[in-house]
Amino acid sequence: MVALREVPDDGTSASPLDDAETLAIEDEALDAYSSAVSTAAARIIPSVASLRIERRSGGWGGAGSGVAFTPDGYLVTNAHVVAGTERGTATFVDGDELAFEVVGRDPLSDLAVVRTPGGDLTAAPFGDAARLRVGQLVVAVGNPLGFAGTVTAGVVSALGRSMAARDGQASRLVENVIQTDAALNPGNSGGALADVRGRVVGINTAVAGIGLGLAVPIDAATRRILDALIVDGRVRRAFLGIVGGTRPLAEAAAARIGRSRGLEVVQLLEPGPAAAAGLRVGDIVVELDGQAIEGVGDLQRQLVGDVIGRRLELRIDRGGELHSVAVSPVELRD
């Protein structure tokens, strides 16, 4: 129950409350929920910009949101927001309008970095999505339908979702996507999903249905992606040429390795390193270079730029027997 301060009735006509008294009463009326949301929003709003996209052919195209994460002009947004463009304008709630150029984009994570010439941006602090819990309060800030600085709130509905992303012929699962019921609308893409302390834990990426929004997590993996985009303008990934899904292992193989599942090869992309190394459809991958593989996500985490061109040991279950195959990943190309 929230206690409201009572204005004494002294029999005289009521006089207008001064600003200080009004603010005191409003502060008392704020419950914990409202206080948490307003505190987080106040911290994040100055860092969120409305992005207006300039078409390569001239004129203006779509729009979205972006989040400043360094004082010297870098903003993170969605790759699909800046697809097909190299520049645009970023407008902040204080009225500042700055031109931006695309530094790099990674459609396979749906993240992109743009930079403005401004050297005095309010950088939003990053949190860690790995510490989120289902039911936790989150705040979404963006520019839906062109309304700048819009704040909505909700809870983390689910964690560990996967979202398919594609770049040309290459496809990939974006892992550990955050599902929230905070209201999202077109234009929210690229905006911030923050915890109650005003730390960005996700970048809103999709409206999946009524009351269901998705956000790419801000965690150790996505921080590395942002670093790569700033330094190289792209993300280098290794490629084996395997399409597969999780499958239970034969009893004997499961007993030998101490795990019950692996990644079944359902298709080999040719030409590709896996096909060249002698893998077959139906093989079940259980380890890559000593690291356990139980599904697509496990394999993707191992296929980083550092392993490109290296000779790795791939351990497989073939007909209930374990075999080792040497394979050298190549760089994933568009």
Care to describe what's here?
Helices cover 16% and strands 40% of the residues. It has helices at 19-29, 32-44, 220-232, 251-257, 273-276, 296-302, and strands spanning 48-54, 60-68, 74-77, 87-92, 97-106, 111-115, 137-142, 150-167, 170-180, 192-194, 200-209, 212-217, 238-239, 242-248, 261-268, 284-288, 291-292, 312-318, 321-327, 330-331. It has six helices and 20 strands. Among the domains are: 129-229, Thrombin, subunit H (Beta Barrel); 238-331, Roll (Pdz3 Domain), CATH 2.30.42.10. It has 334 residues and is an alpha+beta fold. The chain is globular, with a radius of gyration of 25 Å. The termini are far apart. Strands 1-2-3-6-5-4 form a six-stranded antiparallel β-barrel. A six-stranded antiparallel β-barrel has the order 7-8-9-12-11-10. The longest helix is centred in the N-terminal third of the chain and has 13 residues, at 32-44.
Based on the model shown, name its key terms.
334 residues, alpha+beta, Thrombin, subunit H, Pdz3 Domain, 6-stranded antiparallel barrel, globular
Give the arrangement of secondary structure elements.
Elements lengths: L18 H11 L2 H13 L3 E7 L5 E9 L5 E4 L9 E6 L4 E10 L4 E5 L21 E6 L7 E18 L2 E11 L11 E3 L5 E10 L2 E6 L2 H13 L5 E2 L2 E7 L2 H7 L3 E8 L4 H4 L7 E5 L2 E2 L3 H7 L9 E7 L2 E7 L2 E2 L3
